[in-house]
Amino acid sequence: SKVYSAAIAKTQKIWTAYLDSIMKVGQMQILRRQITNELNYSCRFDSKHLAAALENLNKAILADIEAHYQNPSLPYPKEDNTLLYEITAYLEAAGIHNPLNKIYITTKRLPYFPTVNFLFLISQFPKLQYNRNLGIV
What we know:
The chain has one domain. It has helices spanning 2-46, 48-70, 83-93, 113-124. Helices cover 66% and strands 0% of the residues. The protein has 137 residues and is mainly α. α1 (2-46) packs across α2 and α2 (48-70) packs across α3 (83-93).
């Protein structure tokens, strides 16, 4: 019985540490999203022409790249072409991007990681409450 309770205590410590890590990452993601929204709002307010030009250039480049994948005979930006890197910097500065789609680091694939996350999520559901005023959990 002592071994069993020690194992449960150790498991609870691990879940608590995991919860803290997940919460920190979630808070950082929310902050990144809010900063992007503020940059986008400021850019549209201060320079609507710049924001419109950046959006149209971005759409045009994406349409060209998509057309290349539909028909490989069409041109694609070469590796030494810095247009994609430069436009990315402008889009990020203007808040015209989705920060949640950006990958900063990569790791090896961990076995059973999705299963562990699913079990963790199931274990945390009882702690969540719906707030009607905010419309969020």
